[in-house]
Amino acid sequence: MALPAPDIKFDLRGINAEVNCLHFSCKVQKPNIPLLFSGASNGYVHIWNLNTRRVDTILNGHQGKSVYWVHTLHNRDLLLSQGRDLRICTWNLAEGRNEEIDFISMESVGFCKCALLETENRLLAMPGREISQVQVLDLGSKKIISSMNSNTDNKWGMAMCMKLWQPNSGSSPMLLVGYEDGSLALWNILEHRLVSRLSCHKDAVLSLDFDCIKARGASGSPEKELNVWTIDEQQNLKAYKVQELVNPGIADVVLRQDHKILATAGWDSRIRVFGWKKMKPLAVLQYHSATAHCVSFSDHIAPEDRLLAAGSKDQRISLWSIYQNI
């Protein structure tokens, strides 16, 4: 049984559209301001001042098309936003600017969010033109350094979600992709090679996250199950555990940065929190009145300041101080 849920700390309103994605930028020293970025179904990116709990800036660069991924670069001097207008926009936020300075054209009409790896060369994973294709782009040169496809007549369906990371051993970054047919695939980027594949869901893999230290990850789908899986020393994907839920539909799965807890966003409007070590249910957060689309953990320096945020179809963002309760 989950513990009694903590109360909401505060909420953010006034977006007037569904909230599809969230991204914190709070690892700053005073007088810099902790920020929360949100992408909405009306094409706007809102930049929230977490001290005043109000919007500082609204960015409009996706022609009214839904924004479903945002991420900061260069200590938040730059922002990437991905929209249904088939563009990944780059925004200059340095010294109070709010200008679109570049964009990358996409060829996929799906809902798969990009994945970013910040190494010496910033790498961006994104869905390709062909139905099961995924590509990795060098952000500096804008050159595609890897393109990977299922080579099975697109039986896997569309790429739905992905996670890009750099292993401690080995020179190549690795990419995990969840597909429409319910399978997960592990790709070697530099070798453009499928390393392993696991059929772990009966329906599309809607979201995933991966703990590269424990070599363990979790994924969600329209089903009533949260699937946990591992990558062994031979880089084989293996089923590990299935966590049964009360209601179907997991829109988002996110691990906290310290890899101690995991949160999910549910179609039933609930935010569920689990202990990552044993997948013990810790709390069910109830505030939203419609589907929860996304969750995100803040990166505040001080643990007592850290937050969990959730965005919903009900056009609101809820923020929770679960660190003091869990």
TrEMBL record:
SUPFAM superfamilies reported in the protein's UniProt record: WD40 repeat-like
Repeat listed as a keyword: yes
InterPro entries: WD40/YVTN_repeat-like_dom_sf, WD40_repeat_dom_sf, WD40_rpt
Source domain of life: Eukaryota
This protein's UniProt keywords: Repeat, WD repeat
WD repeat placement: 285-326
Pfam families documented for this protein: WD40
Bilayer-crossing regions: none
Name this polypeptide is given: Guanine nucleotide-binding protein subunit beta-like protein 1
Organism ancestry: Eukaryota, Metazoa, Chordata, Craniata, Vertebrata
